[in-house]
Write a structure and sequence with these properties.
By secondary structure, the chain is mainly beta. Among the domains are: about 80 residues, no CATH class; about 100 residues, no CATH class. It is built from 5 helices and 55 strands. Strands 16-18-20-22-24-28-29 form a 7-stranded mixed sheet, with no helix packed on it. The longest helix is centred in the first third of the chain and has 10 residues. The radius of gyration is 29 Å and the shape is globular. The N and C termini lie far apart (about 65 Å). About 35% of the residues are buried.
């Protein structure tokens, strides 16, 4: 069958990365222009990838931190991450769609005790201590009920459930295709107009219409001894059998592809379990405190094992592993093409029917069949001094060499295109590392607390440096940021106490909170005109910083330095600063600052804590006042907002304790949270 344009569009909708879209068009000439045919974004986008999808009309926001574009072509947004009901109503007014709506305690206080039909989940403590609640209807749309949702609802005697499945001694099971449950409220008497009839949980036959066992579905069903999971089910949710203390055995069918976090946590009677080869991920705490579990199998399909998966399995003496690679003093390495590992359980004696034979981790030769070093692969291998990474590997996973305290150097081959978050976190002996030009991003806290690291070369292929990436690299004296860098994460160089100078390229638009905080040896820095935001405490405790070079200086007050256009931003004057642009600082009265007409926005924290500011004229060129703009301006008595302004940011006039009057023009369509608090 020959794939046409429509078919390849459908296939590419399931791509996870922009590289897949690019490689498709490069590799198959007749599919060039595939991205141009999309009228929505099938993946999250950044500034670069947005240009590759020029015809988007509906913008999909998959995660809360996704970059949002509001260019003229986009007429509607689809929000996939969880939002509360209040947010949904606001988005609905603007013609947008929300796919995952939660009814929260705040929503209930505002909109009442009837759960709207659009709701997908009822939040934690939603009706907690709602003493006026006597009856409630739970619609079939609900796929999750939060903890203590109906706790201490002392007057709740009746519940109506659209899709009742079963009532046990402890819980009410409802809905499909996701089976969920809730604890039976203390004083409940009636369900669907009839007296409650509690049944033995062991007699519950899960119907074949169920495809997922939801969050905390059988949690604390203390009398559950065994249960049959039908082959219609493909996922077991987080905390599903959490603390089912009498559960002795369970059969997981091969239809299951995912087992949630803490799924069997505290199943203290569970002696054995079969993990089918369809499972690819054993999540955090999955079998923690399964104190009777004596043996378990780990199939070759597993590509990730979460934190503390087998923690406190005190009877676990034997493990069968389909694809064993190596056993060190600390960890068992297994599987391919993703190499993963687990910490050796405390009482383990047998692997694959043989006594454990521990080997020196430094003698482990990674086979060429491995293409990825998985999550926490070498985490806390405290005796690992060096390792050769073969060119077959293209990715190093999150926490891979986390706390490898003896690791002094590592060579990363050019085949690697991704280094995960926390990858070399607290590698306290790491002195040098090469980053090849195949890498485009350095993850969050990647080199956090690597104190011997004195220098690092960042190739021009890098465009992002993550949160706290070089935090507490106390021997790092210099670093060169290439002009390809577009993002420096929060606290990126926090505590780099030996860093003397750094050049910020003109591609940077945000200097985030704490970026250079406690860089006590930093003497000079440049701020390019591209910067539109400077976060909290960016230069806090930079006790040697005496000189700043600013491309576009606007004004220097007693407290702050104002810079750049069309977004006017500012930063607190560092305590030791003496020189700006080669001249001694000349501070002026903030009340004499005339905002130039080239400014279109007053940026984040622009006039924050300007305690002597009494009044200011905002020119009609400005259309937005950013978050915290005039917060803590304790002497500000009045302000005139021109009709050009359309938005007042969050906490804009927060703690303006002298503000007596303000005009809000009809042009304003958005007033942020706590604007006048």
């Amino acid at each position: 069958m020959k794939l046409g344009y429509n078919e390849i569009m459908i296939v590419s909708m399931y791509f996870n990365d922009i590289k897949d879209f690019i490689n498709l068009e490069i590799g198959v000439k007749r599919f060039q222009g595939n991205m141009e045919r999309f009228h929505f974004n099938p993946i999250p986008l950044n500034e670069y990838s947005r240009k590759l999808f020029p015809n988007i009309e509906t913008f999909h926001i998959y995660n809360k931190n996704d970059k949002i574009f509001n260019d003229r072509r986009i007429i509607k947004k689809v929000i996939w991450y969880q939002v509360d009901y209040s947010t949904y109503l606001k988005e609905k007014e603007q013609g947008n769609i929300c796919k995952n709506i939660e009814y929260t305690e705040e929503d209930r206080n505002k909109y009442g005790n009837i759960i709207p039909s659009e709701i997908k989940s009822v939040g934690y403590n939603c009706f907690y201590k709602c003493k006026s609640l006597t009856t409630i209807n739970i619609p079939s749309s609900i796929s999750k009920i939060g903890d203590d949702c109906f706790g201490y609802c002392s007057s709740l005697t009746s519940i109506n459930i659209d899709n009742l499945q079963f009532v046990s001694e402890d819980r009410i099971f409802i809905n499909e295709p996701v089976l969920i449950s809730t604890e039976i409220p203390d004083n409940l008497q009636i369900i669907n107009g009839k007296n409650i009839e509690n049944k033995d949980i062991n007699k519950f036959i899960i119907p074949s219409s169920i495809t997922k066992l939801g969050y905390r579905c059988f949690k604390e069903c203390s009398t559950l001894k065994s249960i049959n999971i039908p082959s219609s089910i493909n996922e077991i949710g987080d905390y599903c059998f959490h603390e089912c203390s009498t559960l002795k055995s369970i059969n997981i069918p091969s239809s299951i592809s995912e087992i949630g976090c803490w799924c069997f946590y505290g199943c203290s009677s569970l002696k054995s379990i079969n993990i089918p080869p369809t499972i690819i991920n054993l999540r955090s705490g999955c079998f923690r405190y399964c104190s009777s579990l004596t043996t378990i199998n780990i199939p070759s399909s597993i590509s990730k094992i979460g934190d503390d998966c087998f923690g406190y399995c005190s009877s676990l003496t034997s493990i069968n592993i389909d694809n064993l690679q190596f056993v060190s003093e600390d960890r068992i390495f297994m599987n391919e093409p993703v190499l993963i590992s687990i910490k050796i359980p405390d009482n383990l004696q047998i692997i694959n029917g043989k006594n454990i034979e521990n080997k020196d981790i430094n003698k482990f030769i990674i086979p060429s069949s491995i293409t990825k070093l998985g999550y926490r692969c070498f985490s806390k291998c405290s005796t690992l001094k060096s390792i050769n990474i073969p060119s077959s590997i293209n990715e190093i996973g999150d926490y891979c060499f986390h706390e490898c305290t003896s690791l002094t150097s590592i060579n990363i081959p050019s085949s690697i295109n991704e280094i995960g978050d926390y990858c070399f976190y607290k590698c306290s002996s790491l002195k040098s590392i090469n980053i090849p030009s195949s890498i485009s991003e350095i993850g969050d806290e990647c080199f956090y607390k690597c104190p011997p690291l004195t220098t690092i070369n960042i190739p021009s292929s890098i465009n992002e440096i993550g949160y706290n990436c070089f935090g507490y690299c106390s021997s790092l004296t210099s670093i060169n940021l290439p002009p390809t860098i577009t993002k420096l994460g929060e606290w990126c160089f926090y505590g780099c106490s030996s860093l003397k100078s750094i050049n910020i390229p003109p591609t940077i638009i945000n200097l985030r909170s704490g970026c250079f905080e406690y860089c006590s040896s930093l003497t000079t820095i440049n701020i390019p005109s591209s910067v539109i935001s400077i976060g909290y405490d960016c230069f806090y405790e930079c006790t040697s910083l005496t000189s700043i070079n600013i491309d576009n200086l606007q004004f220097v007050s007693e407290d702050r330095i104002f810079i750049n256009e069309p977004v006017l931003i500012s930063t607190e004057i560092p305590k030791t600063l003496q020189i700006i642009n080669g001249k001694n600082i000349f501070k002026k009265d903030i009340n004499k600052f005339i905002i130039p007409s080239s400014i279109t926005k007053l940026g984040f924290c622009c006039f924050k804590e300007c305690s002597t500011l009494k009044s200011i004229n905002i020119p009609s060129s400005i259309n937005e006042i950013g978050d915290y703009c005039f917060s803590y301006c304790s002497s500000l008595t009045s302000i005139n907002i021109p009709s050009s302004i359309t938005k007042l940011g969050d906490c804009c006039f927060y703690e303006c304790t002298s503000l007596k009057s303000i005009n809000i023009p009809s042009s304003i369509n958005e007033i942020g949270f706590y604007c006048f608090s």
